[in-house]
Amino acid sequence: MTDKEALFEFLLRLADDHLVLGHRMSEWCGHAPTLEEDLSMPNMALDLIGQSRNLYTYAGEVEGLGRDEDALAFLRTEDEYKNLLLVEQTNEDFAQTMLRQFYFAVFMELFWEKAHSSSDEVLAGIAGKAIKEIAYHVRHSAEWIIRLGDGTEESHQRMESAVLELHRFTDELFEIDDVISSVVEAGIIADPSSLKAEWDRRVGQVFAAAKLEVPVEYWPQSGGRAGKHGESMGYLLTELQYMQRTYPGMTW
Amino acid sequence: MNQETPVWEVFIRPRNGLAHKHVGSVHAADEVMALQSARDVYTRRGEGLSVWVVRSKDIVASDPADKDELFEPAADKIYRHPTFYDIPDEVGHM
């Protein structure tokens, strides 16, 4: 694997994380529990999809085969998507949606802070914009986790179930393989495992305020980076890709 | 949420030097969430530099039934409007 191939693969993973989570968030549009959240969640979805567009466009340039953001976002098969398993998990309820957002956003906030001084100028530029958006995602999801965790009996129980369901997908955030090693060595990103302690601290802080326990024993799940996804991913892509597959090259 | 969730009035200041202006209301359980909701609902198109939220129940309002005694006495005092003075051209816009 050349440096260029590693960079492309890395950008694709990051873009896929943002597109898939953005799509999941957008599924709430028109279904949120209150009008306020019905605007807030699509706002976050649009932030994430906007970030994915920048990343796909740059990935296409790095690849150099003429694929643009649309080709990369809409015209790949399921096993070619390299997103984290965490971000493809279904919405289920509001508690699970907020926790999924929180886990990812806390990581990305740390990630973008480092990427701001990346040796890769384009990525540093994307970081500059993304960092403000993701800071708000952390803030908003954390406030909800605290209120639900330390809320009613039912809201607490739903937060606990969400933690039980999602925590096992968080180790994948910090995984290192050849692709990551290559971009770390090139000074493009920080070693993700170096972000783990601070991620643990920030999550622990919010969980303490929310009267939730950070799971100690769980069975870590991964495979998204290798293109191995859960059953729900196929349904997500079917909806996501429908227009481009049915009317190739359509624009509006 | 709804019956028990307090209503908050939202005020936004669009630019430095201007006053905060009432733009609408949101439902939220407490002041932190009220501020976030206000941001999400009312500043999506870059409307503001600053947001205030105030609990609706904390606003003291005049009674619409009192409007005659409160506001009508001003109607015939046209000299309170600065429209009777000639402004020299050199002054320009005032």
Could you explain how this protein is built, in words?
- The complex is a heterodimer of chains A (252) and B (94).
- Chain A has 252 residues and is mainly alpha-helical.
- Chain A has 10 helices and no strands.
- The radius of gyration of chain A is 18 Å and the shape is globular.
- Chain B has a 3-stranded antiparallel β-sheet with strand order 2-1-3.
- In chain B, strand 1 and strand 2 form a beta hairpin.
- The longest helix of chain B has 12 residues.
- The radius of gyration of chain B is 20 Å and the shape is flat.
- At the A-B interface, helix 2 and helix 6 of A face helix 1 of B.
- Secondary structural class of chain A: mainly alpha
Radius of gyration of chain B: 20 Å
How far the N terminus sits from the C terminus of chain B, by CA atoms, comes to: 50 Å
Percent strand of chain B equals: 15-25%
Radius of gyration of chain A equals 18 Å
Helices of chain B, by number, come to 2
* SS content category of chain B: alpha+beta
The largest chain-to-chain contact, stated as pair and per-chain residue counts, equals: A-B, 11 and 14 residues
Characteristics:
heterodimer, A: 252 residues, mainly alpha, 0% strand, B: 94 residues, alpha+beta, 18% helix, flat
Write the layout of secondary structure elements.
The complex is a heterodimer of chains A (252) and B (94).
Chain A (H helix, E strand, L loop, with lengths): L2 H24 L8 H29 L5 H6 L10 H4 L5 H22 L5 H29 L3 H14 L11 H8 L10 H14 L21 H16 L6
Chain B lengths: L6 E7 L7 E7 L3 H12 L7 E6 L11 H5 L23
Antiparallel strand pairs in B: 1-2, 1-3
